[in-house]
Amino acid sequence: MGYTVNSIVIDKNINKVFEIINDVNNWPVLHGYNKVELKNREKLCDGNERIIFEVFAEDNGEIEHWISQRIINYKNYSAQGVRLEPVYPFKYWILDVILSSVSNGTEMKWI
Predict the structure, then answer these.
(1) Among candidates 32, 71, 26, 66, which has minimal Cα distance to 17?
(2) pLDDT above 90 (res 16)
(3) Which residues contact 62 (CB under 8 A, 6 or more apart)?
(4) What's the predicted TM-score (pTM) here?
(5) In contact, 84 and 69? CB cutoff 8 Å
(6) Which residues, at least 6 apart from 104, have a Cβ–Cβ distance to it below 8 Å?
(7) For 36-51, how does the pLDDT look when each residue is reduced to its tens digit (9 = 90+)?
(8) What 3-state class would DSSP assign to 21?
(9) Given strand 49-59, what is the order of strands in its sheet?
(10) 108 or 88, which is more confident?
(11) CA distance readout (Å), 36 to 20, 27, 84, 93, 107
């Protein structure tokens, strides 16, 4: 399975960046989606949090939607997104986001 790795440095502290990237209710503003509906939120036994949500986005005048899951790891400043349905046109859709503090802000790496 192929993958890509990218990163950027954001001139904000790690806690603020982590809060912003995991606030799915704000994703229409952050990513330009039409809307995001929260379906479920639960605290896992390992201290992580799982949220399931549906995204509605416009593409060439058509509204697309999909359901995704996000596991948020508060201890390690990381999150894993998994597209649940529909996965098409992908065979798999998994996105790991890892934050780390650097001298000039926060490095956000996604794989």
Answers:
(1) 26
(2) yes
(3) none
(4) 0.87
(5) yes
(6) 9, 11
(7) 999 999 999 998 999 9
(8) helix
(9) 6-10, 105-110, 94-102, 78-85, 62-73, 49-59, 35-43
(10) 108
(11) 15, 7, 15, 18, 26
List helix spans (H) across 14-90.
14-21, 27-31
Q: What are the structure tokens assigned to 20, written together?
A: 């912003």
Instruction: Report pLDDT for 1.
Output: 66
The CA angle 106-110-111, to the nearest 5 degrees, is 150
Has residue 82 got a pLDDT over 70? yes
**pLDDT (average), residues 7-11:** 97
Question: E strands, 27-93, where?
Answer: 35-43, 49-59, 62-73, 78-85
Which residues neighbour 13 within 8 Å (Cβ) at sequence distance 6 or greater?
A: 101, 105, 106
